[in-house]
Design goal:
Shape: elongated
Number of helices: 4
Structural class: mainly alpha
Helix content: 55-70%
Order of helices and strands: HHHHEE
Strand order of the largest sheet: 1-2
Radius of gyration: 18 Å
Length: about 140
Amino acid sequence: MRQPEPPDVIEELRTFLSFAVPLRSADLVYKIKSWGYSRAQAIAWLTSEADRAGVSLGGRGDALQLSDRAPRTGRPLDTVVRTADDFVSRVAAAGLLAQLEGRGGVTVFGDYYGAPSGTEPPEPAEQSAPPRTGNREK
């Protein structure tokens, strides 16, 4: 009996991204709206999210690229999971940034990513929101 061919790694990654990126995009849009960020604040925060994820991906991206499909536990498993999560964060943040800049979204491995259907990119607030603190005004 012949063994099945291993799946195409890029197709597996595309499938994963097609599920995870819209969820992360919706989460980012929710946070921006609930925090009352202005357009400038949203752009600054999304840029920092994308940068943070990019640094992480640059430092640990080989964990995804050079995976040998062996079962992982402990630190190697954590590295792969964190790297994949950072990749999703970067694609979602980049897609939302592109929309805020009027470019619509981004294309990764031939698939388009922007704001999830049914949601709009964050609208600019009339004025800057006050900084979030744990103290309540009396």
